[in-house]
Amino acid sequence: MRKPIAWRLATAMLAATLGCGPLAAPQAGGTPGIKRTILQSHAVPGTNYKFVEAVTEVGPNAVVPRHTHPGPEIMYVLQGSLTLEVEGAPTRQLTPGQTAYNPPGIPHGGRAGPDGVTFLVTWVVPQGRPLASPAKSDRRADGLPGTRRPLPALRASR
């Protein structure tokens, strides 16, 4: 079976960026069961923002705690699956080849599937700000993030 073009492009982009040397190293600390490897980071010319690209690996059935980002986040699932909860949006099950967009400042989190999940992620964040910050605790009974207020539907693509 022929792989979709998006998969081939993501694989080529990942292969090209893995050669970035010192940037291609796991971040210290973080949440147990979650490993974020920064691939590259570049200033956005003429702004106080930067692009950050990473591969995030989440262990089997691990919970991704609710958090926010100071800028937009775009993710592309490479392998495994993720139940994604974004405040004000329906719960989504993401599988390889699917993408998601998380708006700045909107709490989101989720849970990896039984085989874990690996995704390519890009953030556009103000320089000097952290990539992510914990969100207020508002958990559902099943341990996944809850919602506080309705927001317009978020667009995602396959």
List keywords for this structure.
mainly beta, 9 strands, disordered C terminus, globular, 9-stranded antiparallel beta sheet, 158 residues, 1 helix
Largest sheet: 9 strands, antiparallel
Q: What would the principal axes of the Cα set say about the shape?
A: globular
Give the end-to-end Cα distance, rounded to a whole number of Å: 18 Å
Q: Mind telling me the C-alpha Rg?
A: 15 Å
Mean pLDDT: 78
SS class: mainly beta
Low-confidence stretches: 5-28, 144-158
Order of helices and strands: HEEEEEEEEE
Number of strands: 9
Beta strand %: 35-45%
Q: Enumerate how many helices there are, as a single number.
A: 1
Name the helicity range. under 10%
Describe the structure.
With about 160 residues, the protein is mostly beta strands. The chain contains one helix and nine strands, in the order αβββββββββ. The chain has one helix spanning about 5-15, and strands at about 25, 35-45, 50-60, 65-70, 75-85, 90-95, 100, 110-125, 135. Strands 1, 2, 3, 4, 5, 6, 7, 8 and 9 form a nine-stranded antiparallel β-sheet that branches. A hairpin with a 7-residue loop joins β1 and β2 (about 35-45). It is globular and about 45 Å long.
